[in-house]
Design brief:
single chain, alpha/beta, Rossmann fold, six-stranded parallel sheet, four-stranded parallel sheet, 31% helix, 18% strand, globular
Amino acid sequence: MAQEIQQIGYACSFDLVEAGGENLVSEAGFDLRPHSGADKIVVYDVKNLQSDALDTSFYNGVTVVLDDIGTKQPCADILLNPNIYGESLIYPKDRYRKVLAGPKFSLVSKEFNQIRSLKSLNVFPDNIVISFGGSDIGQFSLELTKHLSVNQQVEVVLSPFCKDSDLAKCPNHVMAHRGANIKSLFKRANLFVGGAGTMAAEACAAGLPMILTRVAADQKLNADAWRKLGVEVYSDFDAKALAAAITRRCQTQEFSSSRSFTEIIDGFGPQRVAHEIDLLAQSV
C-alpha cells in the first residue's frame, strides 16, 4: 500500500513498527520518523492503538485506520479491513467517510498473482511450504514436521528471531528457513500449510491449495471465512491432524484449486486503496 501511495506522488515514511520491522521498512526504501500534524495522510494500525479511541484533534489530514483484527472501530476518515471476512462486518456509518473492506482491497502484492499465472495447479507438488507466522520459533512448524513423513520436499519458514538451537531441532527431511523470501518458496510449491493470517491470502493469490489452522485468537474470523470458501481449516492447532491431512493430499494428489477460489484476490487491492485515499486527500 505504501508503495502504491508513493507512486501517486506522496512521500511515505513509517512511525510505529513491530519488533524487527525496521529492516523491512529500510529494505523497501522507506524512512522511519514520527508522524506530525502536517502530514497529508496518516495510516494507523489498530493493533498499535491503546484503546478504541483515536485522537485526531491535532491533525488536519486524512486518517486511515487499518483494522486487521476486526475488534476495534475507532473513528477515522477511512476504515480499511482487507481480510477475506471484511465485507461481512458492519461498521458504523457515522464513524467513517469511506469503508474499504474485503478481498477487493487486499494488500497482497500483485507479484503473488504473477506466480499463479506461471504455475499449473493440477500436478503433483514439488514442495510443501509450512509457515505459521513471524512468532513461530518452532512451536508450530517443527512440532508438525515431527509427525510428517512424505516424499515431497518440505520447507518450513520460522521466525527471523529463531535461535540456532531451535533450528537444530528441525528433522533431517525438512529444510528450515529463518525468515525467507515467501514469493520464491511459493514458486516451487504446490501446497501451503499454515495459519489463517496474511500468508494465507498470499498463498491464495499465488494459486496454492491450502490447509489452514487458527494459531491466534484474531485469526478466528479469517479461519471461518476460508472454511466457507471450501478451504480445509482446523479450528485449533493439532500437529497430528495436520500431518494426516498433508499425507492424505500427497497420497491422493488432491492439489487443484478452483479458478474462482484462486482469483478472490486479484492483486489490484493496493492500487484501489491508494486511489481511494488519494481521492479523499485531494478533497481535504
